């Protein structure tokens, strides 16, 4: 699959899916012309030449908020927005949102475990007086 300049920009931002990042890195090692294109893309960025799409991607204007990602995990997001979040994370492969979702999942799991421990402690404390003396 040929590499576009947009993909090279996303490669520089480390915003591509891991498999595509690895494929481009492998291609860069073998292809002098691709290395020159990457240098040209980086040079344009350093010179301050930005496309609307590049600004959009760099500032992550299409990314859902962390609150929306959390609502998506809980299954309480409105259907249209939920479909967009799923598309953005699963098909567009936004690594930033994937990382944020992973973090939210870990926080949720840790919170569930902490809640279960507190519940067990309350059960024990409430029944301690009924244990055999």
Structure report:
It is built from 7 helices and no strands. The protein folds into 2 domains: 54 residues, no CATH class; 65 residues. The termini are far apart. The protein has 133 residues and is mainly alpha-helical.
List keywords for this structure.
133 residues; 7 helices; 74% helix
Number of domains: 2
Largest sheet, described in full? Answer: none
What portion of residues is helical?
Answer: over 70%
Catalogue the unreliable spans.
Answer: none
- Range of strand content: under 5%
Structure described in brief:
This protein has seven helices and no strands.
Describe the protein's topology.
Elements: H1 5-12, H2 18-30, H3 32-46, H4 52-58, H5 66-74, H6 79-91, H7 95-127
